[in-house]
Amino acid sequence: MPPTTEADPLPGGLDTAAGVASTERPFNDNLLMRGAAGALHGARRLAALPAVAWSKLRPHGAGEPTGTHGLTLRRHAGVLMRALRQPLVGGNRVELLIDGPATYAAMFAAIDGARDHINLESYIVEADGPGAELARRLIAKCREGVKVNLLFDSFGSLTTATAYFDALRAAGVRLCEYNPLRSWRRLFSRAVHLRDHRKLLVVDGEVAFVGGVNISGVYAAGSSLGKDRRTAAPPWRDTHLRIAGPLVSHLQQLFVAHWNQHACETIQPAHYAPRPQPAGKLRGAIASCEAGRRRNPFYRALVKAIDHAHERVLLTTAYFVPTRRLVRALSAAARRGVDVRLLLPGQSDAWAPLQAGRSHYGRLLQAGVRIYERQGALLHAKTTVIDGVWVTVGSANLDWRSFVHNAEANAIVLDAPFGAALEAVFRSDLQCSREVTLAEWHRRGWLPRLFERLARRFEFLL
Length: 462
What we know:
By secondary structure, the protein is α/β, with parallel strands linked by helices. It folds into 2 domains: 213 residues, Endonuclease Chain A (Endonuclease, Chain A), CATH 3.30.870; 169 residues, Endonuclease, Chain A, CATH 3.30.870.10. The chain contains 16 helices and 19 strands. The protein has a 17-stranded mixed beta sheet that branches. Strands 9-15 form a two-stranded parallel sheet.
């Protein structure tokens, strides 16, 4: 059974669930604008606080964790709130989902139980495999009167037949194609490379999913089963989250705002803002970014967490094309004695990001960073655990595309039990990985070096 966690209350946060306001009326734009204005006002007040004031922010009625974990939690809580410029939200329950089959099973169960609405956003939506099952379930829910909205990326879903989306639309599913490529004007615009890379699902405003799993047939089998004998293709290794509690309203806001910004038709009226109900004790935040924006809250929070790491940084990503600032942060952490380990793909569906990332290995290895390449599966997970308490799972890779060009969404939680669960997954992946040593790296041939230099020239677009 996938690990779940309900952590003890965390100091350093605020006892508030700032997010979608409670209302019994259908969701509307005015409600969204009032909620956004209130959130912006609160963020500005928090950002204006002096550094010493952040250390005094504590949840009402929360206990004070003692010992090493308590100090580590308080330190990372303050750093995270300053980086995101928002308080942490408590009362959540989070379930870790490993690979496609477990993720689809949980998502389909939530969809089957929907009573009011289903909001789905995915970079890739394919017609075959899980996509066919998804369509069948969404159409069935439409017949029951459930409002269904699907936001998909035009480039990510480029190979999906138009007939697939036509069938969904005819059944009552409201569709939004992000940054369409079907127009010649759009195809040659400067914004053609801006993509919606998020993978999130919100059902009835009560349960949400976020992570790295697309709606795609590549996830038909789990990574533990080995290669598909029919196609000889490697299985895909990925990580997703199921969330219940007040954080769901934050993901709901994120979806509705994205829809209103990019859709050619209004979202279907439904009860999108139910009163947030506590489902556990875990505290965290949603870190998201819009495509094309240079200011990225998730990137800022990640780098700051690495800068303040004292014990270990365990980082997993599918595409590693780091900025100079990230390389400096990782190198500096390793030099001050932090155990920094990177779990990266040994094979990829795109050669350029793989080679561009490898061009940074030398500097990282010299600083003491340990690098592992996953074998036997195509690594697509995007997770990080810092000091055993700072945990993130989401859609953002550690590359320029995620930092600058894509719309992304990550959940960040501060919790020792949940950190331990994800660290166990990291250790399991290391058993299927090969460590890259500095001596071995110096011995690589001229052809890999040539590919690395070539890919490095275009890393801003990767």
